[in-house]
Amino acid sequence: MPEAPPLQDLQKTLGQQRLVTFEPGRAAIEYLAGVHMCHSGGVVQGGFICGWIDAAMAHAAMAGGGDMTPMSLELKVSFFAPARPGLVLAEAWIERAGKSTCFAEGRLLNAAGEVLAKATSTIRLIPRAKVEAGSKAAMG
């Protein structure tokens, strides 16, 4: 099994608890949805849900190995039921992969295993060195 990337500030902000699955083409990440992530009625704001599933799809792409950074080109999310504070699980898998582009699917489940949202994404795989060089140049 490939080594999971270290936990970054972004994952902490999103409430990441643990990486449950990290294997070629598949990933599952457990998050703690906090009250501070909710809007009216105690419902988790949709941007967090998108971020959770997007991160799981990116991890599924990274788990395939290689020195590539996944960049989402397109993300579509369908919401089926409200997410509430508590543990949720974002699962993702690579449906099809080419040399520089892959197509991912994912979903968000609550603690009872109910599907709260599903997503699809087109992901561009860019050499990590190129991404890091671009980031350094942008940050001066």
Automatic annotation (TrEMBL):
Any Pfam family the entry gives: 4HBT
Coiled-coil residues: none
Domain of life: Bacteria
Sorted UniProt keywords: Hydrolase
Thioesterase domain ranges (all copies): 41-115
InterPro entries: ACOT13 (IPR039298), HotDog_dom_sf (IPR029069), Thioestr_dom (IPR006683)
GO terms assigned for molecular function: fatty acyl-CoA hydrolase activity
Family indicated by similarity: Belongs to the thioesterase PaaI family.
PANTHER family from the UniProt entry: ACYL-COENZYME A THIOESTERASE 13, THIOESTERASE SUPERFAMILY MEMBER-RELATED
Protein name: PaaI family thioesterase
Organism: Phenylobacterium parvum
